[in-house]
Structure formats: structure tokens, C-alpha cells
Amino acid sequence: MEEKDAKSALSVNSGVEQPPIVNPNAFAQFKRKKRNPLTLEEYVDGIRSGNRTILSQAITLIESSLPEHNELAQQIIERCLPYTGNSVRIGITGVPGVGKSTFIEAIGSQITALGHQLAVLAIDPSSERSKGSILGDKTRMETLCADPKAFIRPSPSAGSLGGVARKTRESIILCEAAGFDVIFIETVGVGQSETAVHSMVDFFLLLMLAGAGDELQGIKRGIMEMADLIAITKADGANAMKAKSAKIEYQSALMLFPATESGWSPLVETCSSVDKVGIMKIWEHIESYTSLVKSNNFFYTRRKEQAKYWMIEAINNSLMRNFYGNEAVKENLEILEEMVLEDKISSFAAAKKLLSIYFSSQK
Amino acid sequence: MEEKDAKSALSVNSGVEQPPIVNPNAFAQFKRKKRNPLTLEEYVDGIRSGNRTILSQAITLIESSLPEHNELAQQIIERCLPYTGNSVRIGITGVPGVGKSTFIEAIGSQITALGHQLAVLAIDPSSERSKGSILGDKTRMETLCADPKAFIRPSPSAGSLGGVARKTRESIILCEAAGFDVIFIETVGVGQSETAVHSMVDFFLLLMLAGAGDELQGIKRGIMEMADLIAITKADGANAMKAKSAKIEYQSALMLFPATESGWSPLVETCSSVDKVGIMKIWEHIESYTSLVKSNNFFYTRRKEQAKYWMIEAINNSLMRNFYGNEAVKENLEILEEMVLEDKISSFAAAKKLLSIYFSSQK
After folding, report:
1. Which of B75, B79, B195, B221 is best to mutate for the A interface (most A CBs within 10 A)?
2. What whole-number distance in Å separates Cα of residue B165 and Cα of residue B58?
3. Cα separation of B95 and B99, whole Å?
4. I need a surface site. Which of A29, A140, A251, A297 has the fewest CB within 10 A?
5. Confidence band of B129 (pLDDT split at 50, 70, 90)
6. Which of residues 81-100 of B touch A (CB under 8 A)?
7. Cα–Cα distance measured from residue A201 to residue A227, given in angstroms and rounded to the nearest whole number
8. Is B319 on the interface with A (CB under 8 A)?
9. How far apart are alpha carbons B71 and B288 in whole angstroms?
């Protein structure tokens, strides 16, 4: 942990010149500086002025598992809260191989060219970084990485979905306070993290491959119905025709879906990140969506619902962590679970026994 | 409460001759008999021998909110558990007006004609019984009500979804112990109860109307992806052609959905409950499904998952009830929620404050 935080602090400081180490005193000073480099005021001022290094350091505090880091992170977040909310939060998902990195690179560059400030975050609780998440591999987004109007933050280290989702949501607050008005939250469309992302974004973009065959197996059922827009990627070269007919198929499928609460009818578009075709259109759709849901107020009521949802989620997660982490519960859970599976006790009777064990251990 | 239970006890006893009231002693005896009419042994033996009156009385105990009834109900359930599991549990959903009652009447009669024992239960946490749920209105299923091989149980009285779902799941156990080998769980496809039903059934049947217009607005997004079979109802008379083309549309839509875990490809059929066309085919599909998932073991692993799920659900619901019912939490929840909505505190900081209030009140 110590080592990891030292490393993070170093890496976000990499652009800052370090004092030369000449004697033990200087070294002590350097060490102190690394451990607590900035005051609360300096963090907040730095973030508010759009200083990416300080923003990055603050996100590192959020991701840290040291209690003193979290304490400071919470103070920073609370100070930043009055300056948040002025962005469009866009969830982007798709299976590995769909071309998320090139798509984000392509659309991101066009968005910053329009004058927007873009932050790209990732939510991916899987520990296997090699499974295709773009943000583990910054080098695949060279243009955007060099773009002064873009801020790319790799995935936080592995953890529970609840933990990672919470960190991402807190990072959004800081990015907004730093002036980013477009926020991408990227996730790999294979697990439960899409639901978490869906509950923190304004717009949900699903990337799909043409040829509704094996590629689809990776997308979890239910994700399609969350999409505000399905973009069929790699619509270029020999693939262009296939993408076009996939578009028609998905369009008629979406028409059969029940209406959305937002009043928006989900769309299907084809695009090519390589040929830069169809990318701008997708951004225009996002803008149309935003103006629609702002005018019918859905944008604001949903954000309020999301804030409440995250409070309740945090409470419920914590209650469960407390229960399932209880020693007496741990000792009995497996035994009772086994009895349920063998039809020796009903699910509800087993639950009741575990609860009475838990509550009596609390006293 | 007292009155309601007395009424239930009367109604399920309605076929049993009552002793004449001649003197105060006889009356006292009669009263005692009504309050605790059967012993645990009598309940279990009655259920096991397929006695519908006793089964009905036992379900009334499950639905009762008196602690002593619940105590007895849990004992009955535990004694019945070894005799459960030998049924196909089928969830049936659709918006009001889709024709659920006539469909269940039509398919139910065919199923009992094949020699099956059919139990029809309902899960519907809404308190407005007038909104089209069939089971509040037994008279609409005259044939099935008179069928000696069928058992129809109206919806339990209003309550929280968690409570109603739990009661339905416990009723399934008793019905199976009573020898019913086909169990329908009916719900109105407009709320969250479908997810609850989906987690307690083997097969999920969605009834839809032809003409993918306004009728669809009532079906919640996500329900379509749960369906193992979509039946387009009222495919008769002038509606037959419309139903046929709806079938083709839904078929191509389903093909775009990701594969199911069961290995089953969801189907679309048209049917007419009035003309009795297509009804038998739906039952045959359910049989094919069952033999598929029994041979690939999905049937059994899923039931085990469901039993575990219900244990965890019961625990989590109880933890939350305890938290949100806590007086100190109640006093502060709204204030903190308001602060979250006004961006004065982050969702997570508010959650943390409430949790510390809760845990310190526990000691």
C-alpha cells in the first residue's frame, strides 16, 4: 500500500522538478513532501484552476485505501461539490475488440476540437487489466493523451464493484470542478459494471460489432435496453455493408422496446473510427439528447435520483459488508447455505437464524 | 387483523359442517377450534395428501401477520421441504388487457387434461386489485376454478414487494408438497415484481398484444429480455394477420439479443385463448425447455442459485428494514437526503454520517 501510494505520488509528480538530494535533511524534507504534498486549500484551488497534476493527485487520494487519504479526499470532494454538475456524463460500453479505444480517440478529438474539455474515466472492477480495457493501455490513445483539452485517467486498481464505482463517481465530481464539461465513463460490456455506470451517467452509448454472431455472446442481456444510442463500429472497407444491414436490424429491434422514461427514442448509427465517418453524427445525437432532456427536465430529476441512489447504495453496501464480515456470521453462513441447498431448511428460516446470530453478536 | 384471520379461517372451512351453537361451553369450544383448527401434524399430513382446504389454510398462515401464525407456518414449511422441487414453475406476465385470465384458463385446462396438477399463484404487491390482475377475480376463470386438478389462490393482500414475494415463494413450497407439478406464478408486467418472479421460476412467459404501439408502453424495459417465450395473444378474427406479423418482428428482435445462460433460444408464438389455437404448442415448448435444461443441468443449478438468492435477499431486506426503521436514522435521513440533493454534502459522506448514527444507536 505504502509503496503503491508512493509510486502514484511520484508518477503524478513526474512533470514537476524534484529537489536534488544533497544531505539527510533535504531527504527528510523530500519524504515529507511526498507524503503530504498539498494542503486542502492547495488541492481545491489547484482543481478549480484546472491543474491536471493536482486533479490527478486528488483522484489518487480517492483511490487510496489509507484512512488519512480518504479523510482528505472527502474534504476535497465536499469543497468541490458546489462547482459540479456542469457536464454531460456519457457511459461508453462494448465488448473487448469492438474498438472502444479508437472510438474514444476519434470522438474525443472531435469534441475537444469543438472547444470542450474532456475527461475520460474507467470503471472496471476486474483485476485482469489485459482483457481489453482501453484505459489500462494509454498508448493506444496517443492523440487524446497529448491533447491539452483532454484528461485521461486509467482504471483504478482492482476492487469490489461497489468500491470502484464509488471511486469513479467521486472522480467525476473532481473532474467537473476542474472544468471538464464532457465526461466519458468507459466500461467493458461483459459484467455488472454497466448497471453501475448507467446509474451515474446522463447518456449511455453501446458500441456493437456488425454481424450479430458470436461477438454478441459477450454482451450481457439487459445492456441493450439501457442504450440511448447503439453505434456499430468498424463500418469501413469490406465491413461497411454488413454494418449498414446491422443498423437496420437493430433499428427495428429497438422499435419493439418499450418507451424510455427520458422521452428519447434510442438510435442506431454506424461509424468508422479509422475513416472518421459517422463519429461527429454521434456527438450531435448526444447534444440533441441533452437539449431534449434538459428541456423536459428529465436531466435534472434523474441526476437527483442518481445522487439519492448513491447514498442509499453506499448505506446498503456498508450494512452488508458489516454483516458478511461479522465473525459469527462467517462461521455459520456456509453451513446454513449448505442446508438450504440440500432442502433441509428454507431460505427464509436460514436467513432468520443468521440474522439472530448477527444481532446478538452486536450487543 | 383478528377479524381478517377469523374470516379466512371461516372461508376455507366453508365446506366443513359447523357444530350447532347450543350453550356457552359449545361456543367456547367452537371459538378455540377456529383459532387453532389444526395441529402441525394435521397440516403436514393434510398438505401431503393433497387436501386443498388444508393447503389453503396453511397459505393463510403464511400470509398472516400474526407472529404465532408465522411460527407455525415456518414449521409446516420446514416439514414440507423434503417433498418439494418436483414441479415446473412458470412465470406468466403481461400488461392489463393482454388476456392473462383467459390464457391461463385455456392453457390450464389443457394441462390438467394431460393429467397434471396445476397450482396458480399470484405475486402483485399493488394494493389496487381493480387494475386487471386476474386472480383477484376468480369468476373470470370459471372452468379452471371448477377443475379438481387445479388450485387457484388469489393474490395475498397488499404489502411490500419483498414481503409478497417471500409469501409467494413459501406458497410454492406448500403447493409442491401437496403434489402440484405445474405451478403458475402470475404477475402484471408493469413493475418490479417481474424480477422477483423471474428469480423464483424455471420458465418466464411474456404475453404481448399484436400492434407494437401504445400497448407496449406498459411493459417495463428489461422484461422482454427475461422472456423464454413471448406469446402474442388474441390472434383471432381480424387480429390474426396483425399477430402474425408481430410474431415475425419479435422473432428478429429476439435474434439480436445476447444468448441465454440456459442454452435455450427464446421463441415467439401467436395464440388465441378463445379459438384455443396455439395454446397447446406453448405448453409443448415449455416441455421442450424443461427437458433441455434438465439435460444440461441448468434447471438444477439455477434452482440452487435461486434458493441461495432468496436467503441473501431475506438477509439484506432485513438488514435494511432494521436500518431504515431505526428512530435515530429516521430523524436524520431526510435532512441528509436534502443536503445531498442540494449538493451540500456528497452521497457518500451523507451515507457515512447515517451509518455512524445507526451503529452508535445499536450499542
Report:
1. B221
2. 17
3. 9
4. A297
5. very low
6. 81-82, 84-85
7. 11
8. yes
9. 40
Q: What residues does A205 pair with on adjacent strands?
A: A92, A229
Question: Using an 8 Å Cβ cutoff, are A55 and A178 in contact?
Answer: yes
Q: What is the pLDDT of residue A166?
A: 84
State how far the Cα of B137 lies from the Cα of B242, in Å rounded to an integer: 29
Angle at A18 between CA A15 and CA A22, to 5 degrees: 165
Write down the residue that cell numbers 496517443 correspond to: A142
- pTM for the model stands at 0.71
User: Is residue B6 over pLDDT 50?
Assistant: no
- Among the partner-chain residues B223, B340, B363, the one whose CB lies closest to the CB of A308 is B340
- Cβ–Cβ under 8 Å, residues A165 and A108: no
Identify the residue with better confidence: B249 or B19.
Answer: B249
B252 at A interface, C-beta within 8 A: yes
- DSSP string for A247-310: HHHHHHHHHTSPPPTTS---EEEE-BTTTTBSHHHHHHHHHHHHHHHHHSSHHHHHHHHHHHHH
A22 band by pLDDT with thresholds 50, 70 and 90: very low
How confident is the model over A208-227, as pLDDT tens digits? 988 755 445 566 667 888 89
The nearest CA of chain B is from the CA of A332 a distance in Å of 13
Strands, E assignment, chain B: 88-94, 118-122, 150-152, 182-188, 203-209, 229-233, 267-270
CA A165 to chain centre: 6
| End-to-end CA gap in chain B | 34
Cell reading at B181:
407439478
pLDDT at A358 over 50: yes
Chain A contact present for B71, CB below 8 A: no
